[in-house]
Design brief:
With 279 residues, this protein is α/β, with parallel strands linked by helices. 33% of the residues lie in helices and 21% in strands.
């Protein structure tokens, strides 16, 4: 049977990709953020995953406001990155795992989630940058990909409770997958930030630490607030915490924190990195 080895969570702002491209990892502005990744890479090397199930949000590369599904699951043999206009390089293509994707989709539909199935799908910086951070020297990505996109852009957004339930449904699928895959779950985005409007530059460290403190042992605590309250607490783009919540659900009932890094600010964003391990 498949084994879920644990979860990796990180911010994904495009400026991180720019810093990687320029080689700014040791610059004082960036060093505290990048200092959190040797521990992530060591953990991944020890865990040896060969599949990544990634919860992220698309920023218009694959879906736009005229067609934006609440939940979308990729079931393609390959996923390519493309130019989003940030001046970032186009990252390496990702090999898919269509059989596992369809198994996940079937479980989600059985659990009454109305998901969009994508047999062709582009992936943007929200997925590519976390891979560059985790495997910076890889000639090809060492894991196959199952991407799960959550709408964090256009209201109405799914509730935190619904996203946790989505993740728990994915966990049931992974736990029943008969393959011998070693699976890492990845959640990307956030933490608190707002890039526009009267509150541009907003960061709420207290709410961020509440999220970080609750994620491993009490993820249900993150579901008590409405989406509007989460926006108030974390900023317009801070609702990307939904990706982390869903990813935590996919790990199963029990997980323990083995690594955390938190740094403010990066590109007007509270940047965080965590690793959770299944006992």
């Amino acid at each position: 049977m498949a084994e879920i080895v644990g979860g990796y969570f990180t911010s994904h702002v495009p400026a991180i990709g720019g810093a990687i491209q320029r080689g700014d990892q040791s610059e004082p502005y960036w060093q505290p953020f990048f200092a959190g990744f040797p521990a992530v890479r060591d953990w991944l090397a020890a865990a040896r995953p060969d599949v990544a199930v990634v919860f992220y949000n698309d920023h218009g590369l694959n879906f736009f406001l005229d067609k934006l599904p609440t939940f979308a699951v990729g079931a393609a043999p390959e996923y390519r990155n493309a130019d989003e206009g940030w001046g970032l390089p186009v990252y390496k293509p990702f090999t898919g795992h269509p059989a596992l994707s369809w198994h996940v989709i079937e479980q989600l539909v059985a659990d009454e989630f109305d998901v969009t199935t994508c047999q062709q799908m582009l992936v943007d910086h929200a997925l590519s940058i976390p891979f560059e951070l985790a495997w910076p020297d890889a000639d090809a990505w060492p894991v196959k990909l199952v991407p799960i996109a959550i709408n964090t852009v256009q209201h109405p957004l799914p509730s935190a409770k619904r996203c946790l339930a989505l993740g728990r449904s994915v966990h049931r699928a992974l736990a029943s997958w008969p393959g011998r895959d070693r699976i890492v779950v990845i959640g990307t985005g956030g933490l608190s930030h707002q890039l526009d409007g009267a509150r541009a530059g907003f960061i709420n460290q207290d709410y961020d630490r509440f999220c970080l403190d609750s994620l491993a042992e009490n993820p249900d605590a993150l579901t008590h607030d409405s989406i509007i309250e989460i926006v108030r607490q974390s900023g317009t783009q801070g609702v990307e915490i939904l990706n982390w919540i869903a990813a935590r659900g996919a790990l199963g009932p029990v997980a323990r924190e083995v690594h955390r890094n938190y740094h403010v600010p990066i590109s007007n964003t509270a940047a965080a990195t965590m690793v959770l391990e299944r006992p």
